[in-house]
Amino acid sequence: MNADFANFHEAFMRRALAVARCGWGATHPNPMVGALIVEAGEIVAEGFHAKAGEPHAEIVALRALGRAPEPDATLYVTLEPCCTEGRTPPCTGAILASGIRRVVVGATDPNPRHAGRGFELLRAAGVEVVTGVLAEECTDLNLIFNHWIATGRPLLAAKIATTIDGRIACRTGESKWITGEAARADVMRWRRLFPAIAVGAGTVASDDPQLTARLPEGVWCPRRFVFDGALSIATLNPLPRLLSDEWRSRTTIVTSERQHSVVVRKLEELGVQVWRLPAEEGVVSSAAFTERCAREGVTGVLVEGGSRLLSGLIQTRALDYLLAYRAPRVFADASSIPVATGLRVELPSVGLRLAEVRHSVFGDDQLMRGRIVYPDTLEIDTTPGEEHGAGDHHCGCDHD
Questions:
Q1: What burial class does residue 82 get, using C-beta atoms within 10 Å of its C-beta: 0-12 exposed, 13-18 middle, 19+ buried?
Q2: Which pLDDT tens digit goes with each residue over 272-308?
Q3: What tens digit of pLDDT does each residue of 149-204 get?
Q4: Are strands 213-215 and 218-220 parallel, antiparallel or unpaired?
Q5: Which of 63, 132, 156, 214 counts the most CB atoms within 10 A of its CB?
Q6: Residue 58 among the catalytic residues
Q7: Order of strands across the sheet with 42-48?
Q8: Which of 58, 85, 268, 346 is catalytic?
Q9: Contact of 252 with 223, CB cutoff 8 Å
Q10: What is the C-alpha to C-alpha distance for residues 288 and 268, in angstroms, rounded to an integer?
Q11: 184: helix, coil or strand?
């Protein structure tokens, strides 16, 4: 593919990506997909997948066209067309029936059982198929879906907001605000993408957060998980908003299976769900949590702190992804709160690192995000001393 032709395809694929994002956060457990039909260099129809069980992007675009495509028509689609029967018929069949003779695709289906089969079926029928156009961007669009399909587990992603020296709060616990308004607005966008948000009980006690996505188009409430091994938030007065607001039925307290049923009943009477899971020394098993999420179809969880919760998830290798906002501030205070603690790292090469890294800028703040890569072995620091994460402080960029 020559450079001019590649640029031509990329321009249309960028538009297909923008169309796909119209389904941002609404398609779970399905992926976001955008499609365009182009004739004589002009877009004549567009479509996106809006919700699981509804028509796929290719079908929406074909219906929007409302007629037979012209002989030179090209279909642009961000993800390999499906080739198996699900809630809806396979898109490869609809493409062939339409008479379209050229299909340009961004990402390959991440399901190993299907990857490339859609391409093969189209090519076998004489359709020209161009693949890999803006493949990284199209793959990045569906972080949650890709992980779910590949592993059968929810994507656990941590969001942090830090100073340049890696602190999420002052020694007093004060964290409002480390990052600026533009970065905090971007957090709201990620909250809308993830089906669920998780925090520790300390965060609820200190910040009383809403954990909703507050966007220009309105407020949306994901499922809200609170890790509370001791069920301490049930004793707070007044009750936290998570237990008393209009979305309290979307709040789930994750606690030890040994917790007393009287307190559990009190929470359930408030309309709150309680998951009693295996725990050790009051710390709920991250494996048991992800398994329960998988059983209930929760495909992704955005973990927003605090430090103790993040430390535990890192020590058990449970975190899959990191969104790290960084502000142009320095505390230079050894008693301020770090992102996480608990590992013993004696060489840079044995620390955690990020792969598939992407960067964004929001005003004066930066966002670095990527998949977490763990070293072959994690050495836990057993040195006695003050546990920075004991207060389970918030991560600095939740609106409240």
A1: buried
A2: 999 999 988 778 999 999 999 999 999 999 999 778 8
A3: 999 999 999 999 999 999 998 888 888 889 999 999 999 999 999 999 999 998 89
A4: antiparallel
A5: 156
A6: yes
A7: 42-48, 34-39, 74-79, 102-107, 128-130
A8: 58
A9: yes
A10: 21
A11: helix
